[in-house]
Design a protein that fits this description.
Helix content: 40-55%
Distance between the termini: 54 Å
Number of helices: 22
Strand order of the largest sheet: 1-2-3-6-7-8-9-10
Structural class: alpha/beta
């Protein structure tokens, strides 16, 4: 198992392909990152790519093999684990040659790191003693994985529906559970009780004879109530949540799961204030469930980590979050899209990101999942989509089908971004709507959906000069609003220097504090929701909007008190709050 973590940040999952091999680039430096398990076709291609690169034997796992999805995922994760461990050993052994990789490991650590200071003191000691010290103190970054719990498509063989354990998310979980990894699985996109129950089938999620967990459950949440509900559900099955990964509802990349006006600061405060209660409550339920199953019972409550992500962009914000909310780590996602050394951002997309401003970054409706999706204007997937619409061929071929969840036109689900679905919907439109303005509005709503299954994985193929015949060359990209303040393509070293306050990558002076930015995003979101709602509002809509506004006001009062008392430079933050307060008054 890993020692005490080296870094106070981690790299979250980004898209499907952007971080699919990031552990191979950062884990040996003690940095944790996350691999998406959505696309087993891409995963299999990456396994072949790295097997060839490192001259390792490769045997294809075709879709004709039973349980091929899970087997592909297991094989790839085992390969990544093997290569990461080899790199880590090579890094430690390079002490005999004064290796650059070892220096890089220590150079990236925060200046306050105890092992960094100790290394400087003893690095000229005897080689044997140094090797022993490195083995005891150097930490390997965690190779975590991510499952979007709602992407649990049913699967067929020879037109016969397969059992539920062959569903996409179930198979991905099985692929991880059967791998050699000692790491965590990040569950995102909400609760899936059937999938959660499936965890009970795998021994690695239960304590071993020493009370340790080989594989850990990490839950991505946006509020405390959801965390407690899901934690109890899993604890009753003898399953422990080792980390709550708290994400901003709107100030994040990828899919955005908006709260009803609950802001990140008050949410983090609620987790901090209830941390001990949460752990103890769940531990009591957990112990009872383990007893009933005849499993090993830990002597003390397992660790519960609290981490946060979404919009953090400065060393001041990073340190404040750690100290004020007693967090264990901070997720830095979007800024790392400008670090091609570790994130698979192709050159054209990299230039698009580096030159993006606030108006270029927007919350779209392009995701076929029906969830708001952070995107950037003029990405090549959108350009290709508009080209097909102009040719009267809207929709994608839908080769991979991972987002095929709609059964509107039959028992076999299809994707809202697929050509077959959009043709059917447009045919319905032709038959029932005559008014040109109404027709265009409905047509645009249908055709705006994009094939992000392909688009979010294409960049890694382009970067590695791999064949894109199946996927095409169009790239989707999913940065958060925070990207507007980063405009420089940098190395991993420079980004870590920025995170730890050794340099500053933000040249603009007008960047708002991350909490103020999120507040503004929620006000914009509410305004849009109110504009879209039919007039006059129903009683239910009125109650929803009133509660939303009340939650925003309560959050602002929390920030007013917090920034007045504790924050250095709070004057500028309070000025930002005042401006947003004026915007809130528009809803009165």
């Amino acid at each position: 198992m890993n020692k005490i973590q080296s870094h106070s940040f981690h790299v979250p999952v980004m898209g499907i392909g952007y971080t699919i091999d990031t552990p191979l680039k950062v884990a040996q430096y003690g940095i944790s990152s996350v691999i998406s398990l959505v696309d087993d076709m891409l995963i299999e291609r990456m396994r072949e790519f790295y097997s060839r690169k490192f001259d390792l034997p490769f045997q294809s796992i075709t879709d004709k093999i039973d349980d091929f999805r899970a087997k592909r995922i297991t094989a790839y994760l085992d390969l990544v684990d093997k290569l990461v461990r080899q790199k880590f050993e090579e890094l430690k052994n390079s002490i005999s040659q004064k290796g650059e990789e070892l220096e890089k490991y220590f150079n990236m650590l925060p200046d306050s790191s105890e092992i960094k200071g100790r290394f400087e003191q003893i690095k000229n000691e005897k080689l044997k003693d140094m090797k022993s010290w490195l083995n005891k103190n150097l930490n390997l970054g965690s190779i975590d994985v991510n499952i979007m719990t709602k992407l649990d498509k049913e699967n067929y063989r020879n037109d016969e529906l397969l059992p539920v354990e062959y569903n996409d998310a179930h198979a991905a979980l099985r692929g991880f559970a059967q791998s050699q990894l000692e790491s965590g699985i990040v569950l995102s996109a909400g609760m899936n009780p059937r999938l959660y129950s499936y965890f009970e089938n795998f021994s690695d999620f239960y304590p071993d004879k020493n009370g340790e967990l080989k594989k850990k459950i990490i839950l991505k949440v946006s509020d405390y109530r959801s965390a407690l509900i899901q934690g109890k559900f899993l604890a009753k099955k003898g399953l422990w949540i080792s980390e709550y990964r708290i994400e901003s509802g709107l100030n994040c990349g990828g899919h955005a799961f908006a709260t009803q006006g609950f802001l990140l600061g008050p949410i983090l405060a609620e987790f901090r204030d209830n941390r001990d209660f949460l752990r103890q409550t769940l531990f009591e339920i957990y112990v009872d469930a383990l007893k009933e199953k005849g499993k090993v019972i830990p002597e003390t409550s397992p660790v519960v980590k609290l981490t946060a992500q979404g919009g953090v962009g400065t060393n001041e914000e990073h340190n404040f979050l750690l100290k004020e909310y007693n967090l264990d780590s901070i997720g830095w996602g979007t800024p790392f899209m400008l670090v091609p050394e570790i994130c698979n951002t192709d050159e054209e997309t990299l230039n698009l990101l580096a030159n993006a401003h606030e108006e270029d970054l927007y919350m779209s409706n392009i995701s076929p999942l029906g969830v708001p999706f952070n995107s950037i204007r003029n990405n090549t997937l959108d350009i290709e989509k508009e080209r097909l619409i102009s040719l009267e061929k809207p929709g994608a071929q839908c080769v991979k089908k991972y987002a095929s969840l709609s059964k509107e036109f039959g028992n076999k689900a299809i994707c809202l971004a697929s050509r077959i679905y959009q043709r059917k919907k447009i045919k319905e439109l032709d038959e029932k709507i005559q008014d040109p303005t109404e027709y265009k509005h409905e047509f645009d709503a249908i055709t705006q959906k994009s094939c992000i299954c392909n688009g979010l994985g294409t960049s890694v193929l382009l970067m590695n000069h791999m064949d894109t015949k199946i996927e095409g060359k169009a790239v989707a990209v999913c940065p958060g609003p925070n990207l507007a303040y980063f405009s420089e393509v940098v190395s991993l070293q420079r980004m870590t220097d920025h995170i730890y306050g050794r340099t500053n990558l933000i040249s603009r002076k007008d960047r708002p504090h991350m909490f103020i930015k999120e507040l503004g995003l929620y006000i914009d979101y509410l305004r849009q929701k109110m504009a879209e709602a039919p007039k006059p509002y129903s009683l239910k809509q009125t109650q929803y909007f009133d509660e939303f506004i009340s939650n925003l006001k309560n959050g602002m009062q929390y920030y007013q008190k917090l920034f007045s008392e504790k924050i250095t430079g709070g004057k500028n933050i309070l000025e930002g709050l005042s401006l947003e307060n004026d915007r809130i008054k528009e809803f009165s």
